[in-house]
Prior knowledge:
Elements: E1 46-56, E2 59-71, E3 78-87, E4 93-109, E5 112-123, E6 127-136, E7 139-149, E8 156-166, E9 169-178, E10 184-195
Antiparallel strand pairs: 1-2, 1-10, 2-3, 3-4, 4-5, 5-6, 6-7, 7-8, 8-9, 9-10
Amino acid sequence: MTDNPLGPPPWLNAPPVDPYPFEDSHDLRKGPDLHPALLALLPYIGEWRGRGKGGYPTIEDFDYGQEIRISHDGRPFLHYESRAWILDEQSQPVRPAMREVGWLRPVMQDGRATDEVEALLTNPTGIMELYLGRVSGTQLEMATDAVLRTSTAKEVTAGHRLYGIVEGALLYAQDMAAVGQGLSPHLSARLIRVGG
């Protein structure tokens, strides 16, 4: 760091700040007001938990448990967080599986939300996906526009996701193109709202 003729910056020796002062809520009954641009995505906000089935042409099928939390802080985007774990034949946890975080936001035009959605999702295995999609009623369908990965990440080249709220549950199916395979079914699950 070079010497500053005006002295050290005021933050250099300042005490720590208080905890983050703004609420991030997955419960629409409390927390900040929902941004009007998010009305089409309203049914997805909450905490969800359930089970699913995974597989791919290059691996054996597996069962998994999953929690997804979709929240907002009053601005025109949603925060998405998912964690999953492998289940054995008796539905007992075996080990942690995929984690994923990201953001979904409606595409704005002339200051108003359209039915188009952009999603940026990333995971700890070194893969970041940019999805573009559309909301239609209680269905959200998205496909990758770009996939970025670190030099050590698995070769993933494309993805497709279909989400829907069916009889109060969050259902989804995820297809993936990876390791030389074309777009193939990878994950599907049914999650029940447990919060929000």
